[in-house]
Design brief:
The complex is a heterodimer of chains A (366) and B (253). Chain A has 16 helices and two strands. Chain A is an all-alpha fold and 366 residues long. Chain A is globular. Chain B has 253 residues and is of the alpha/beta class. Helices cover 32% and strands 25% of the residues of chain B. The radius of gyration of chain B is 18 Å and the shape is globular. In chain B, 48% of the residues are buried. The chains are: A mainly alpha (366), B alpha/beta (253). Chains A and B meet through helix 8, helix 9, helix 15 and helix 16 of A and helix 2, helix 4, helix 5 and helix 6 of B. The complex binds adenosine-5'-diphosphate and magnesium ion. The site of magnesium ion has 3 residues of chain B, from helix 1. Magnesium ion binds next to helix 1 of chain B.
Amino acid sequence: MNTRLRRTLPYAGLLIAGIAAPFLFPDYTFQFTVLWVMILFALTWDILGGQMGYNSLGNIAFFGVGMYICAVVQIGLYYDVAQYTASYGAVKVEFTADQYFTGLAVGLIAAGLGAMVFSIILGWVVFGLRGPYFAIGTLGVALSAGELTGAWDYVGGGGGIALPIYPGEPDDRSLFFYVLSFTLTIILFFLLRWIYLGRFGLAANAIRDDEEKAEGMGIHTMRYKTVGWAIAAFFLGISGALFGNMIGFIEPLEVAFPTVTFGLFMVVMCLLGGRGTLWGPVIGATLFHTFKEVTWIYLLGWQWVALGALIVVSVVFFQQGIVGWVKEKWPEKFGIAVDDRALAETDPDLDEAPSQRLRRQTEAAQ
Amino acid sequence: MTAMIECEGVSKAFGGVIANNEITLEVPEGRITGLIGPNGSGKTTLFNSIVGYHPIDAGSIKFQGREISDLRVQQIARLGLLRTFQQTRIYSKMNCVENMLISVPHRTQTYRAMFSKYPPDVTERAEDLLEFVGLYEKRFLISGNLSFGQQKLLEFAMALMNEPKVLLLDEPTAGINPTLINGLIDRLKRATSELGITLFVIEHNMPVIMGLADNIYCLANGRLLAHGPPEKIQNDQRVINAYLGAHYYLDSD
Ligand SMILES: Nc1ncnc2c1ncn2[C@@H]1O[C@H](COP(=O)(O)OP(=O)(O)O)[C@@H](O)[C@H]1O
Ligand SMILES: [Mg+2]
């Protein structure tokens, strides 16, 4: 009972913190919303980057794709998208509350599914690449996605799109997007916890440790990679849709496909917190985002230098991340057998009587 | 007695090096077949060809009567034809039990099964097989921390976990502590007699393969040199010459 309580405590803490935060600090609701999006970034990046060892630098593409799909759906349900974007917001377009919420709901789902389909098609092309080639290839995809969107007039080109305006008070609006971001990230968190504990987690780690061996054992490696990326893309797509609506105005390079900011932050947050662990991305994102916000307030002018220094320190000197370091320090607490050199080096005893249990099993099978 | 593997005229070249030159052989069901030959004679290359690791230049490879030379590694593995690696490959950051659990057969895996937990009987079988190779006490150790020989035993147990019909073992006793070799030979024999797995074994240690195999093929310079029961191979002048040329002695114990 006591260990059970201790085990569930962090999860309960996360939920309670998430529910209490906007009521305790209502002025920071927007910041907390961004924090949940950051946690979602780190969690989704870790599925392939941490668990499978496929370091993508282009996951932000799914965020941008979802953002644009949602915008097109929200507008397209009620107006002609090309006309809407051509007016560059000069014509005031009204959406009723009903139209707003219907459009957003359909848009969010379409964003998730659209990004997922995009990731599956992309996976066919880039999963043939390994190591740094995969990283650069995916980076190229994200960069060109931003450029292509900027050249596409239908979706407003480089000028962007103004999204429908939330029909209500600003405070309600903040809370509305907070609740959606929080819920989305929590669903993702518990989904990942569940799949990491089962076969998916082991297969992912097997691919990370030796993909060629995994293929030789008949594991459906392509299927695991595709499904892992599709899950990441689904949640990133929805988060992009939410984020776009929260900002209210989207454009390709800074908001939808910010490859060198958000696109890199998701990697750094995982490394900082501890890649390949469930809690690492959560802790890494929280620390990183807090650090970033504090330096933006108190170190104005030097904020990018401070952030760069944090990235260098975590990548160069602290590769196992916080959770990795804690696990190394107190392995017993995590149910990891202590690295017992003596036990590892003693020879196994193959001369003892034949294993009774195996014999019993084979007899039962016959 | 049916043939599990039939190779016919299998050839494979790397640039100018002809690693396998028109190899024709058969691996009969329920037996242990040996593959010997000096270093560089093409044994590992033949294993790689059989399991689909690389395309062959010419010839045909059949598994249970079915042509497999155009299938990919994973497809062949799922048919029940598995190999272990000469250099030993395991999932080094996972513990032994985890290595075993993910080695279950993937023959009929559905998308739903990807997200399933392991039922208790699978965990039990994993532990039983670890006990079978003497690694039960170390089941929660990170496998990369085990000695080379123990990693070899683990890789063997992982292969058994996969319930193959045929298992190709590339030098299973290399790097194993000499005091354990008899125990390992016993386990290999029992894999065939109790678990019903057909074995095809590359082995450098002559006394080992003579005592283990029912039937031995000998390669030299990429060609099939001789074939027969151990007594015949042991006294075959061509085999002795091949090994003498490569500074090996048949009775090296
Ligand atoms: N991937 C490869 N590329 C080039 N040459 C190779 C490759 N694999 C094996 N060879 C060559 O093929 C020959 C047979 O090698 P191998 O099958 O490993 O021999 P064995 O296992 O009998 O020691 C050797 O001359 C080796 O150098
Ligand atoms: Mg070899």
